[in-house]
Write a structure and sequence with these properties.
Number of domains: 4
Oligomer: single chain
Radius of gyration: 32 Å
Number of helices: 17
Largest sheet: none
Number of strands: 0
Order of helices and strands: HHHHHHHHHHHHHHHHH
Distance between the termini: 41 Å
Structural class: mainly alpha
């Protein structure tokens, strides 16, 4: 019978624990096999396979005989077995994968909001009343709520990016505190428009007028800036509504996740899937790293201009910046290894002959190391194993 990869497999930790119990009892593998009622010259092979974890699916009776022969009990291995029984069930894994896919297209900040919001309902902080039976929420309802939460987070993110640009245009020359007020006014108008989509038009207009009067009456913001933001919000909201973005929900299909967990998977196919996943994660990480290197180089160009470095020599400094970024990712800040690698590069005769100024390069190194490490804080995890 084919087994799903999600079913129990005899863990190597359990085999090691059983071996310790046998040694504690002072038995050889053959001696334990005989105590278990197994006879023959090769009877000890069964004990060896169990201890090495090669016996992937030993029966309950074999494990019981093993413990009995060692004069031990199930209490001696329950902590290891509990590691498996405490794992999420198949249904929870299916739900978890679907939840991850729902939030996959959102920035990390909003992904966390979706999962945290779901956990709030899955494990409520307030205990149930003694006379009220507390039941787990229906998983399909939880997924539907998670879809709506993800869609709302996506709307806020996209609308926030749009509104930030419009506030910069409308609030040219205004202090930051006034730009923040304009931004909040735009958010308020967007909320009113969204909440009153299916209500009577006079309800929407009454709320919009009240919001406008409150900001105009305050007197801090120019009326022209307020009207500019209002027109931009109305226009952008109409565009979102026409495209159907206001009703967008992440796609969801539990069947594919359930099939992927229930269907038997060959080792070769599993390795290929793991390799593809590794390449995908590394591609995301490498793209973020290259973008950071390019950003640092763009910032360094202004320093080269101030130092009157000829354009013909910029490629030399471009390679130096790339090397300093590599050093930043491989060494600790202020370490001896960091100083050694920077000095070794900046004092290399080959680069000096090509026009690299040692003093300028060392000054750039300090700037690049700090800036790249700051940008690296937002990188996705590096999937490569650490040496």
């Amino acid at each position: 019978m084919k087994r799903s990869p999600d079913t129990f497999v005899f863990p190597t930790e359990l085999g090691a624990r059983l071996r310790d119990l046998r040694l504690r009892a002072g038995l050889t593998q053959l001696g334990l096999a005989q105590a278990m009622g197994r006879t023959g010259k090769k009877a000890g092979n069964l004990v060896g396979r169990i201890e090495r974890g090669d016996e992937r699916y030993p029966s309950f009776g074999i494990v019981a005989d093993f413990l009995r022969g060692c004069r031990a009990g199930f209490k001696d291995i329950t902590d290891i077995l509990d590691l498996y029984t405490n794992l999420p069930t198949l249904q929870q894994k299916v739900f978890g994968r679907a939840l991850v896919k729902i939030a996959a297209n959102l920035p990390q900040k909003w992904q966390d909001q979706v999962t945290d919001y779901d956990m709030h309902f899955d494990h409520p902080k307030a205990p149930a009343k003694p006379d009220v039976k507390q039941t787990m929420p229906d998983r399909l309802k939880r997924l539907e709520r998670a879809r709506k939460t993800a869609a709302a987070a996506r709307r806020r993110y996209l609308y926030g990016q749009f509104l930030k640009c419009e506030v910069d245009k409308a609030g040219t020359g205004l202090p930051e505190v006034f730009k923040t007020m304009l931004f909040n006014h735009g958010l308020e108008w967007f909320g009113i428009l969204y909440r009153t989509r299916k209500n009577r038009p006079e309800t929407r207009e009454r709320q919009l007028v009240a919001s406008e009067e409150r900001y105009v009456k305050d007197g801090s913001l120019p009326v022209s800036a307020i009207r500019y933001i209002q027109d931009a919000v109305r226009r952008h909201f109409a565009e979102l509504e026409a495209r159907g973005d206001l009703d967008w929900l992440p796609e969801l299909s539990l069947d594919e996740y359930e099939a992927s967990l229930l269907a038997p998977t060959r080792k070769r196919e599993l390795k290929r899937v793991q390799h593809d996943e590794y390449l995908r994660k590394f591609g995301v990480y490498d793209a973020a790293r290259k973008a950071a290197v390019e950003q640092v180089w763009n910032e360094v160009q202004s320093v080269l201009d101030e130092a009157n470095v000829f354009k013909e020599r910029w490629p030399v400094y471009r390679m130096a910046v790339a090397w300093f970024c590599t050093v930043a990712g491989q060494t600790e800040p202020g370490s001896a290894e960091e100083r050694r690698q920077v000095e070794e590069y900046t004092l290399e005769p080959r680069w000096i002959r090509l026009g690299l100024d040692t003093a300028l390069a060392q000054r750039l190194a300090a700037m690049v190391l700090a800036r790249f490490r700051d940008l690296a804080k937002s990188f996705p995890p590096d999937p490569r194993p650490r040496r």
